[in-house]
User: Fold this.
Amino acid sequence: MSKKIKSLEGKIDHFPKHSIYLNVNRLDKGNYTLKIVHKNRIIKKTTFKK
Assistant:
């Protein structure tokens, strides 16, 4: 009888520490504005359409 694997393990060589991922799959269709704020100031403003 063979043993069942109870856990899996892996390594990622390089994973960026300072990244933000935005998943837009669940957003409704339309135009959106993304504002990046630092200390209550907008430092980057961009628009995109889904």
